[in-house]
Amino acid sequence: MSIRTRTIALALFLALLGTALAACSTPGGTEPTPTVSPAATATAEPTSAAQPSPTPEPTPSPTATLAPTPTPSPFPTPTPPQPAEPITIARADTTEKIVALTFDAGADSGYVDEILDTLAREGIHATFGMTGAWAEQYPDAVRRIVAEGHQMINHTYDHPSFTGFSTNQPPLSREERIATLQRTEDVIRQIVDYDMRPYFRPPYGDYDDSVMADIAEAGYTVNVLWSVDSLGWNGLTAEEIAERCVTMTEPGGIILMHVGSQSQDAAALPDIIARLRADGYRFVTIRDMVGR
């Protein structure tokens, strides 16, 4: 292209460019829309990373609430039985031919083994008036008496007269009476498991209303006397003892004998048993007779 041609072209270009610029600067022209800077997007406060929601505990299915089992009303506390009325027995009020053989043990061991042998051979249970002092001296005899099914009754510890009548001594006080009974109980319980209550035999047979009241307070409500005394302790022979016991016995009778060596009661016993049995008598203990 020639220089001339280039010059013309350049002039045309510049003319066109000027026209365009003039149009843009024309006051009546449309005002260019300003470019709105993009509004800053509000950034939310940073949130902590989402923590996993805890797995909810499964709600247990409601279970039926059982009605509480009613506590049974306790049985009313029974009124304790009133102590039995104290009684004194020398012979049972009966027409039945029953008799109780009783042996007091307060001196030496005497013939206790012979007596027990006879009773065992004859199949008889008897009753023994037991002093605590004797039991302390002869515990094996006490064990045998109980083991062979015989009854024991409290005859005090050392055989004092509760009223003083037979010993010409002042009567024992209430405390002394109860103490001698308790001491005997303690001795017996150290030897065997046995309770002699409510049976008591007064030494010498001495008693009165005050004695009955005092022994009842200690749990003894049966005062055991006798309807026949063998009098073996008074020197009678075995034959005399047997004759006396057999002829004096009545239905419900209580025969008093002793285990000590001073008496021939043990020697008379087989004859007494044979003759009374032949007469239709049955042998019982005081417990059997009284029923307490």
From TrEMBL:
Specify the signal sequence span.
1-22
Top-level taxon in the UniProt lineage: Bacteria
Low complexity bias: start-end ranges: 30-52
Tell me which GO cellular component terms the UniProt record holds.
Answer: membrane
GO MF: hydrolase activity, acting on carbon-nitrogen (but not peptide) bonds; metal ion binding
Q: List compositional bias (Pro residues) regions by residue number.
A: 69-84
**Region of interest (Disordered), ranges:** 26-86
> Which Pfam families does the UniProt record give?
Polysacc_deac_1
Where's the NodB homology domain? 97-284
Q: Write the record's keywords in alphabetical order, separated by commas.
A: Hydrolase, Metal-binding, Signal
Q: Does the keyword Hydrolase apply?
A: yes
Q: Name one GO biological process term.
A: carbohydrate metabolic process
**What's the name of the protein?**
Polysaccharide deacetylase
